[in-house]
Amino acid sequence: MNALIGDIGGTKTILAVFSTEKGPHEPLVEKTYQSGQYPSLEAIIVEFLSDVKLPVERGCFGVAGPIVNGRAQITNLTWVVDAARLSTEFGLSRVALLNDLEAVAHAVSILRPEDIHTLSAGVSVAGGSRAVIAPGTGLGEGFLTSVDGKYSAHASEGSHVSFGPVGELQIGLLRYLNEQGFPHVSYERVCSGALGIPLLYAYLKAINFAEEPAWLAEQLAGCDDPTPVIFSAAQDPARPCALANAVLDLFVEILGAEAGNLALKVLATGGVYLGGGIPPRILAHLEKPAFLEALRAKGRFRELLTKVPVHVILNAKAGLLGAAAHGLSL
Fold first, then answer.
1. Residue range(s) of every CATH 3.40.367.20 domain in the chain
2. For an engineered disulfide with 120, which of 88, 198, 212, 310 has Cβ 3.0 to 4.6 Å away?
3. Which helix (H) or strand (E) holds 14?
């Protein structure tokens, strides 16, 4: 049996065909498309199936956005993805839609050793809940619970809760963003690639936390996306930049604090998993003491959180892997 699997995002869409014979780790074929160049997911699927010429019986799609009654509005696109419509249009016996972090959560149980970098081994509790937090373009959150030895993945929009600043620098950040016209500041606003990194940079620059080098100001003035430029400046040993480095330090502390919040909310004694595109790119910063300290600094629950394993997911296609695992099991 073949399944049509997709990882659907505002920037790119990955489609693949997986089979029950080969399993979720080995797609029969896989293609990547620029989402903004197509009017709908259906248009991409038509092109994909015409190119690959493989039969598919089921479908499963991880989508960037909340799912209500089998329908999802894709974040940063005009697309509406409807499971029933996809099933009818492409003759699929079953179509499942997963929140993108729900898809990543489905992958956690089948990740291979090379897919994971451990920040803290901790003491994993058998059957303990697992938390997944993924900073990338946005900030995603999800979790897994175990019943009778089998893990189930759950979606969440927890990254949109109110940012709770810790310490004077973060309190100043909240005030700065309020003054900039953001009456509600979420964790995604301050802990993501598209939104958070540029805002953290602007804040630290505004309070003269460190001097902005002329060469960096020139690079930022000529780019559409400042986040990769800031990352590069923060991690360039040949030309250290105190301002860019401070941005990553602040980002990591906020990420650690929210990872600890999520761990407590779902009692993640089975571990915390950092997904998304950013963590593998900033491993050196995550390995500094500040990240785990921020995660564990929860008063009376420090001891519990110190025992929680913390891992970084290195597999860039964990969302596709998780959607495949779920799709093949339908």
1. 113-314
2. 310
3. strand 12-19
- Region of residue 315 (left: phi > 0; alpha: psi -120 to 50; beta: else): beta
**Burial grade of 88 (CB within 10 A; 0-12, 13-18, 19 or more):** exposed
- Asked whether the beta carbons of 256 and 292 are under 8 A apart, the reply is yes
CB 265, CB 227: distance < 8 Å: no
Q: Any bridge partners for residue 94, and if so which? A: 58
**What is the C-alpha to C-alpha distance for residues 207 and 289, in angstroms, rounded to an integer?**
25
Number of H helices, E strands in the chain: 13, 14
Interval 49-95: pLDDT, tens: 999 999 999 999 999 888 999 999 887 788 999 999 999 999 999 99
Q: What is the CATH number of domain 113-314?
A: 3.40.367.20
Residue keyed to tokens 């964990």:
318
Residue 128, phi then psi, degrees to nearest 5: -70, 150
Of 279, 309, 327, the closest CA to residue 3 belongs to 327
Q: Are the C-beta atoms of residues 176 and 205 closer than 8 Å to each other?
A: no
The partner residues of 266 in beta bridges, in order of sequence, read none
> What predicted TM-score, i.e. pTM, was given to this entire model?
0.94
Q: Which CATH architecture has domain 2-106+317-329?
A: 2-Layer Sandwich (3.30)
Q: Quick check: 77 and 35 in contact, CB under 8 A?
A: yes
**How far is 63 from 100, CA to CA, in rounded Å?**
5
What's the pLDDT tens digit per position in 211-265?
A: 999 999 999 998 889 999 999 999 999 998 999 999 999 999 999 999 999 999 9
The helix or strand, by DSSP H or E, that contains position 170, with its residue range, turns out to be helix 167-179
| Residue-wise pLDDT tens digits, 271-304 | 999 999 999 999 999 999 999 999 999 999 999 9
Q: Where in the chain is the domain with CATH 3.30.420.40?
A: 2-106+317-329
Are the CB atoms for 166 and 297 separated by under 8 Å? yes
What are the residues whose beta carbons fall under 8 Å from the beta carbon of 126, sequence distance 6 or more?
A: 270
Q: Which amino acid is at 192?
A: S
